[in-house]
């Protein structure tokens, strides 16, 4: 049996093929992300859901549908296969009793970023990459630093000065090279590109490298498996770079082609901070892509992303699924962190709390009905947001 | 099929039986912990390891060997089934290439305490308990607060003033009642007992309540399953209250009776801080129990336990297994946190780092041979120890 049914890379816009045996970034013609394509008709003959049921409790249970060819290249810290928690009391209070939280905070380095960077580093090892660089709002930098440490790859992390201290500390502990930049993640990216003249470092920026998406798509596989190969009605996802929303939408398409799921796919809801909501604005305008958001500001550091490189694919996922996009105020995130902690014993990150607050909004607006199954992603451990939480603890 | 093969409670010393249908604490005659006893000869007829392989990724995969009778009483936040990570580079450097870290930091509330408190709260719900109290060095208090929040039980947490701020904050967020006490966990326990005259709160102190141990024993079940129903040669465990070491030793005995493992059991190594090492001192003196350690001091808050109520059982586990007890200086913990982060991408807590440092000591002393399989427990997320880490980041 094949270990991976990975076939090739193709441009998400022009469908031009790219050789997966060498290092690739994005389509230079379209300036759009590349997607990993699998031989799913072949996979369908060899794989079925029952074969997965007794596999290891990590995202590597979907081994054949991930792009790493040789097991020896896998760099793993135990990422993925995170709990899906039925938050019944919370759900009943806000009128959606079938409310679940997918708790991504228990990933290595305490955030969902581990999934993507695990794949980027593992595939990087396979392709002979020796150094990587990333602009980050915080958690992605920490995750790259950890996987780079384990693999022996050199890592250069560019983060805004305002990035939470915990992210700066973790990068230092993992032995990566930390660059603090005035401004936002977009400024960090600029500075990185300046210093990376000649491309001595492999740039693993969100969606400018094809394999982080493959790590993130496993959130979609896991949801399907945890719901016994059905899917929820609605998924709310906090959207910075948006790899998760794109990845899950890709996963659902792959699962359909595999014949493992059927019927209606979830409505994908992008949740952003009111102080940085380029996707919400684009959705309101019915645009196909977003515009740069000036003066981004929010306590949710993961949402301080003024424009996502993969915005076209984010918007497609929302439109195709019949979803929507919701802005949430910082004050509502804070209130929700308190409520969910006291009610469900879960310490959410502001980004996850934003999604719970969005459920309340959408229930009031009747976008959500009481009988629907709703999944919210808590993308990072609340314990990584102590600067926010401490300042609020009264 | 029975949902639980739980039979009754008995005193770990005099073997007197106690009714599991009512609230129990410890044996009033012997002043020793009670143990949960299962009908394992019956369980053996109905259960086998293959039946577990496709179960949920939490400690509830061992459902029938846990004391909760009715599923409706389970209060779960996704605890257990934590990664077992082969730390090859670290192991090769220190001369034990078959070195594994069991990463307990990805449990709910970021520590291994979730396992025990999950069971104490779930069984408490089953027995109609409405309020609980606990003296804690920090993480146990946070875990109780979380499970109490989810269950609706009222919780009173007594911690030393010196407890890390994160533990005080999490308790406040989870809506529990926080009491800050001058002194150590032993002083917190005294104060709690003063205020709890009449026993209005159910005391879930380590080993004074019989079910936390049942949650902790699942670490032993998981190790056996993750190593395909064999066991490692040596286990190093940071010992505060010692429930884990006692629980794993109990698990291995149960697994033998079930016929799921055979042969030699692991040598159990208790690791403590040089500044608070009552178990190490007792081992050196070949004593059956420990004496109170005066002026306990260490950066590892989980090891600031001057005397464990379950010390007799801890010493038995060490002696019966041919284990040992090792003290580690704070400076060695700090050095080790740095080394393991840079080498393996894992941010250990000081207690886990103490165990890695102990591996180095024991390898030098030839207690460990290079061919042996060694497991170290990282009992909490390094992200919960930012006060320690920040002060050290240079």
Structure characterization notes:
The structure is a homodimer of 394-residue chains. Chain A is an alpha/beta fold and 394 residues long. Chain A contains 14 helices and 14 strands. The first copy, chain A, has helices at 40-46, 49-52, 88-94, 113-126, 139-151, 165-173, 185-195, 212-226, 243-258, 278-284, 311-321, 330-344, 350-364, 386-392; strands at 6-11, 17-18, 26-27, 32-38, 84-86, 99-103, 131-135, 154-160, 177-181, 202-203, 234-238, 267-273, 324-328, 374-378. Chain A has a six-stranded mixed sheet with strand order 5-6-14-11-12-13, with helices on both faces. In chain A, strands 2-1-4-3 form a four-stranded antiparallel sheet, with no helix packed on it. Chain A has a four-stranded parallel sheet with strand order 9-8-7-10. In chain A, a hairpin with a 4-residue loop joins strand 3 (26-27) and strand 4. In chain A, helix 4 runs parallel beside helix 5 (139-151), helix 8 (212-226) packs across helix 9 and helix 12 (330-344) packs across helix 13 (350-364). Chain A is globular, with a radius of gyration of 19 Å. Chain A starts with 5 loop residues before the first strand and ends with a helix. The relative contact order of chain A is 0.14. The model of chain A has no long low-confidence stretch (mean pLDDT 96).
